[in-house]
Design a protein that fits this description.
The complex is a heterodimer of chains A (185) and B (187).
Chain A: E1 12-15, H1 19-29, H2 33-39, H3 49-64, E2 69-75, E3 81-91, E4 96-103, H4 113-128, E5 133-139, H5 143-151, E6 155-166, E7 169-179
Parallel strand pairs in A: 4-5
Antiparallel strand pairs in A: 1-2, 2-3, 3-4, 5-7, 6-7
Helix pairs in contact in A: 1-3
Chain B: H1 2-8, E1 20-24, H2 27-37, H3 41-47, H4 57-66, E2 70-76, E3 83-90, E4 98-105, H5 115-130, E5 135-141, H6 145-153, E6 157-168, E7 171-181, H7 182-186
The chains are: A alpha+beta (185), B alpha+beta (187).
């Protein structure tokens, strides 16, 4: 419904980034290569707060240029950054985008916060950005993420054999797809 | 001494197949042939998902120069020197990595005679033996059945699809993904 808030529900909010406090949190998470392997395509780097600020500024610029939508995930009742949700490689002509979602601190996982954020993100992608199709690209080593997306209506449609390298092993690269037509709130 | 004699005995036909050979294409050749081949909108729509916009030679030259890839001209062996298409590898600089492939036979009269498959086999040898890639990837529109059969003949394996990714001619089409591992090729 038009009146239903886009960016918050009972447990989480999706917001813009606040450079100073958010950069400190993101820099801490970046020291865990498992977190970055899920959410950033580049080689993992242990960032300083200064580097993290640059990365967040890059996201803000991409948002301003309408190339992507990078959003901060926060608890409904707390200002701290707990994760990042990104719609990237958006092709508005075809209504498609890739999606990633990461909760930075393992202590914040397994409580339904990521799922609450993804539900907001899907509604936003399909009903506000008008997208037709979302693709989550994951390494097969990331089985928790694959199950997470599948619980929210994504299904595996492609598996590129041995296309990822991670922790000195080769892994398949999975594409999981959610279609607007099949999505239900 | 055996290593020396291996080098001295290297075949000079590394980039030559049974019907075609590959050699690097100059930006000028890419532009001139690109403009000529895309007089056929069928050629363009089989190759690229961006909506087609007619371009001058100069616009095409600039576009070609802006795109980084190892682009080869596909030349007939007989008559020697006739360029009939192109093939290219992207993201292929990392040994042990995953390169992406594109190929197009520009003139329709040169299609359907196994020349594309021949070019793919030369490119695979280059990718695996010279660049040490672990795999080659490609995407192909579901409506491009001729290309799909050529990829299958060259040993590429179906790896799934992104459903309804591309919109053209009033409907949506799947984008199929295919891959060739070094271990597939060497088997």
């Amino acid at each position: 419904m038009i009146t239903t808030p886009l960016f918050h529900n009972a447990t989480v909010r999706l917001t813009a980034f606040e450079l100073e406090p958010d950069a400190a949190a993101y820099a801490r998470w970046s020291h865990d290569p498992h977190f970055l392997a899920q959410t950033a395509p580049d080689a993992p780097q242990p960032l300083s707060a200064w580097h993290a600020k640059q990365r967040i500024e890059g996201w803000q610029k991409a948002n301003d240029d309408l190339e992507a939508v990078h959003l901060a995930i926060r608890r409904a009742d707390d200002p701290g950054l707990i994760g990042v949700l990104s719609l990237y490689e958006m092709v508005k002509l075809f209504g498609t985008a890739k999606i990633t979602l990461g909760i930075g601190d393992p202590a914040n996982r397994g409580q339904g916060l990521g799922g609450a954020a993804l539900r907001l993100g899907l509604r936003y992608a399909f009903h506000e950005q008008g997208l037709h199709l979302l693709i989550a690209v994951l390494g097969a080593h990331n089985s928790g993420a694959a199950r997470f997306f599948e619980r929210h209506g994504f299904r595996e449609t492609a598996r590129r054999r041995e296309a990822c390298q991670y922790m000195n092993k080769r892994w398949d690269e999975l594409s999981l797809v959610a279609m607007a037509a099949e999505w239900r709130q | 001494m055996s290593e020396m004699s291996d080098i001295n005995n290297m075949p000079d036909d590394f980039f030559r197949g049974e019907k075609v050979r590959l050699r690097m294409m100059t930006p000028a050749e890419s532009a001139e042939n690109g403009v000529r081949w895309t007089q056929s909108t069928e050629y363009y729509r089989l190759l690229d998902d961006e909506p087609m916009v007619p371009a001058s030679l100069e616009q095409t030259r600039k576009h070609v120069e802006a795109h980084q890839s190892k682009t080869f001209a596909i030349e007939l062996l007989d008559p020697a020197g006739t360029i009939i298409g192109f093939t290219a590898l992207w993201k292929c600089e990392t040994p042990g990595g995953d390169g992406w492939l594109a190929i197009g036979i520009g003139d329709s009269e040169h299609r359907g005679a196994g020349r594309g498959v021949d070019a793919l086999k030369i490119l695979a040898r280059y990718a695996f033996d010279a660049l040490q890639l672990h795999r080659i990837s490609l995407s192909v529109f579901e409506y491009n059945t001729r290309a799909m059969r050529a990829y299958e003949k060259a040993g590429f394996v179906h790896e799934g699809r992104i459903p309804q990714l591309v919109r053209r001619d009033g409907r949506r089409w799947d984008m199929l993904l295919m891959g060739l591992l070094a271990s597939d090729w060497r088997a």
